[in-house]
Amino acid sequence: MRRTGGLRLLSAVAAITAVAAAAACGGSSARSDDGPTRRGSAAARTIPSPTPTPDPVAALVRRMSTADKVGQLFIPTVQGTTAATGAAMVAKYHPGGVIYFPNNLRTARQTATLSNGLQRAAAKDGGVPLLIGTDEEQGIVSRLPYITRFPTNKALASTKNPDDDVRTAARVTGEELRAVGINQDFAPVADVNVNPRNPVIGVRSFGADPKEVAHLVGVAVDAYRATGIVATVKHFPGHGDTATDSHTGLPVIKHSMATWERLDAPPFQTAIAHHIDMIMTAHIVVPGLDKSGDPATMSKTVLTGLLRDKLGYDGVVVTDSLSMAGATMKYGAPEAAVRAVQAGADMLLMPPRLDGAYRAVLTAVRSGRIPQSRLDQAVTRILRMKQDRGILRSPYVDASRAADIVGSAEHRAAARKVAAHIRAGR
Q1: Structure pTM?
Q2: Residues of the chain with pLDDT under 70
Q3: Which of 179, 277, 278, 298 could bridge 232 with an S-S bond, Cβ 3.0-4.6 Å?
């Protein structure tokens, strides 16, 4: 896949910024061909209109090829513990991000070196820096084998000072992720776990009280964002009341709209009020919200009608893994990717075959099934988020310092303090 020569991210942003600065102060040095203006004349008294500052993200989107834009929608896995294999994939597809799993992660320094290598591959020929994410919820869902350990969200919510403990866990986790070049966390969980038979959420949730869950989600989002991490709440519209695991089946949740508004919506509303960076979709069917029978990930009624229009969210929407059975049972993986974008998803996580999903989306854009305006909207959101979180400006980390931050004495002391609170609160 040939990269369009006009795509030069860093130089484009710098050039546009320079033009904006020149436009802002250029009036004082401008020279008229009509000769000097007499003092006190009408021309001298006229105040020129300010020149609008160019938007570097909008300019970049205009310069990108359709193929590069489609690449930005994808977050695939990477292979190995060094950048070589992943770099080849990045060079071929130009994805918007990648996701790490334990097979990628050995030590803090190794992970930081891997992250820098992948970022260099993404930036080659002026490309766009990557989101580098992982599922580091702590507790039972933890990917980094060397990270400072904290307990589950349910345990954190059980202490006498849950705000402090949730904030501490998110802060330490965010600082350690950033140290190794991971700039995105697929956390916190915003599901309200009201079904004791739930096989996939359970203790990953802050609890069964929507008000308490909403409050603690807001605390966690603020703490993650303060560390520079792109936080991601999940799983919209709410995966808490199911006895089916969407990894292996397609759950059906029988909540009415009124029940959803009372029970499932509050944590997502709070996350939006706290400027959440990303919201992850759920592969669940909720007939009370959409009678089509489509999973929420592929439902325009849910992603655009509810999340965008009703809740007012204009950030990035990312699917849950498209390798899960709940995503592929009805349409198959390539078509699921197309339908997710049509429904309002901006990023597509872990398609089982990246090449097939990429080509399906690219073909859908070129044929008009996915309008160019929908593609541009998604890419603009992605790039705006990367700009706002500093990823476009500074994607690299100091690998030599990673081990000093991960597992530091201060972080270990914070973890022991939280653990003591949990023991005392039970």
Answers
A1: 0.88
A2: 1-51, 244-245, 248, 426
A3: 278
